[in-house]
């Protein structure tokens, strides 16, 4: 079976969501450590400009956004408990809320002044200003991830209180087995728990902490390190794409932040029926398919 190649970086919460999911599903993967800031010259030939982290590569196909990546992994492993049919709306919408609103709140909480000193991204002034400039460019044209700290702290406290109460009654958020909602909430709390200056603030929520530890124990599955060049080579050497009827040249872009578009021919791909899929060519690797979830993205003819 084709290798799962995760393009990610260690400090990225959304990458941690997928690393943890790989561990839970016991799926082996190769992991490419991408730079935390642009440029990413060994990744852009594959994504065609999409720059959010992480992306999953399988041969010459790229899956963007962890909502889609999670479904691809669940289907590859045959797991049916991550997306329980009788709880579909509750589970998937809680996951979407955590990946959007809760994530914005934790970004504000994680980057509060008292937590900056131990953040490796801010180890020196040059690194800090390069990071800030990169994320300003990333957020151009959108409201970005800005939530005032005082608002974020108030919301975080209320949500932690409700998670803590629910997790006092229940092993995972929806019962005895983790669903995709657990992974979406997990990576947000992981981002806070990782900051030594903030870890003590979580002590008021012991049931949530017990759950966080249970999620962490899934590990990351069997992983091998792969370089960006090796990943490009995997794409270039992968079998060609099956014949696909090509539609209009179109552009896909996120609806919230990270508005760097990807352009290609819109195609319907039978094995990823719920996605916006674009076929594009790259001089280094040839034909590439780039897939996005429909929720959270828009597709417009160019
Ligand atoms: N909805 C996206 C969000 C991904 C996201 O915001 N990732 C952050 C890192 S955790 C990012 O892209 N930051 C900018 C960057 O890495 O260039 C997903 O689920 O994949």
Structure notes:
The chain is an alpha/beta fold. The chain folds into two domains: 5-79 and 222-301, Glutaredoxin (3-Layer(aba) Sandwich); 85-216, Glutathione S-transferase Yfyf (Class Pi), Chain A, domain 2, CATH 1.20.1050. The protein is 43% helix and 19% strand. It has eleven helices and ten strands. It has helices at residues 13-25, 44-47, 66-77, 88-110, 113-116, 125-138, 149-169, 180-193, 196-199, 206-216, 228-237; strands spanning 5-8, 29-33, 55-58, 61-64, 223-225, 246-254, 262-267, 275-282, 286-293, 297-301. A ten-stranded mixed β-sheet has the order 5-2-1-3-4-9-8-7-6-10, with helices on both faces. The longest helix is centred in the N-terminal third of the chain and has 23 residues, at 88-110. The model has no long low-confidence stretch (mean pLDDT 96).
- For the termini, the CA-CA separation is 36 Å
Helix content: 40-55%
- Main sheet attributes: strand count, strand direction, barrel closure: 10 strands, mixed
Structural class designation: alpha/beta
């Amino acid at each position: 079976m084709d290798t799962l190649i995760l393009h990610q970086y260690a400090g990225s919460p959304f990458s941690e969501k997928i690393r943890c999911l790989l561990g839970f599903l016991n799926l082996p993967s190769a992991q490419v450590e991408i730079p935390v800031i642009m440029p990413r010259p060994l990744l852009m030939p594959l994504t065609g400009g999409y720059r959010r982290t992480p992306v999953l590569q399988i041969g010459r196909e790229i899956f963007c956004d962890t909502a889609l990546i999670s479904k691809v992994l669940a289907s590859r492993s045959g797991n049916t408990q991550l997306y329980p049919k009788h709880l579909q709306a509750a589970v998937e919408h809680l996951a979407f809320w955590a990946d959007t609103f809760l994530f914005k709140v934790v970004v504000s909480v994680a980057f509060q002044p008292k937590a900056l000193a131990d953040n490796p991204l801010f180890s020196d002034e040059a690194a800090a200003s390069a990071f800030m400039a990169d994320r300003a460019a990333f957020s151009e044209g959108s409201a970005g991830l800005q939530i005032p700290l005082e608002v974020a702290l108030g919301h975080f406290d209320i949500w932690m209180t409700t998670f803590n109460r629910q997790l006092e009654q229940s092993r995972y958020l929806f019962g005895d087995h983790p669903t995709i909602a657990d992974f979406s909430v997990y990576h947000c709390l992981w981002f806070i728990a990782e900051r030594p200056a903030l870890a003590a603030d979580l002590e008021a929520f012991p049931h949530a902490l017990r759950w966080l530890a249970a999620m962490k124990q899934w590990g990351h599955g069997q992983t091998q390190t792969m370089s960006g060049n090796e990943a490009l080579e995997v794409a270039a050497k992968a079998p060609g794409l099956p014949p696909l009827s090509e539609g209009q040249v179109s552009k896909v872009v996120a609806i919230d932040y990270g508005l760097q578009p990807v352009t290609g021919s819109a195609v319907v791909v039978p094995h990823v029926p719920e996605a916006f899929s674009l076929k594009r060519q790259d001089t280094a690797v040839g034909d590439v398919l780039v897939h996005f979830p429909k929720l959270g993205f828009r597709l417009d003819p160019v």
